[in-house]
């Protein structure tokens, strides 16, 4: 299942990032989004969603949400 299919307010564990872009993977890692870390969809909006990772909230677009498997 991907982050795009996640329920709002429920905590999930990141299983992996499906991308060939090393810079994007490094960026997500710097946010704390990597395998084994908890992630929560706070809200959905047109074109993406707001997620909570560690102590931060981030806006994730639809394409990126599809790449994060939970």
UniProtKB/TrEMBL annotation:
<dbReference type="InterPro" id="IPR007167">
    <property type="entry name" value="Fe-transptr_FeoA-like"/>
</dbReference>
<dbReference type="InterPro" id="IPR038157">
    <property type="entry name" value="FeoA_core_dom"/>
</dbReference>
<protein>
    <submittedName>
        <fullName>Ferrous iron transport protein A</fullName>
    </submittedName>
</protein>
<dbReference type="Pfam" id="PF04023">
    <property type="entry name" value="FeoA"/>
</dbReference>
<dbReference type="InterPro" id="IPR008988">
    <property type="entry name" value="Transcriptional_repressor_C"/>
</dbReference>
<feature type="domain" description="Ferrous iron transporter FeoA-like">
    <location>
        <begin position="1"/>
        <end position="70"/>
    </location>
</feature>
<keyword id="KW-0408">Iron</keyword>
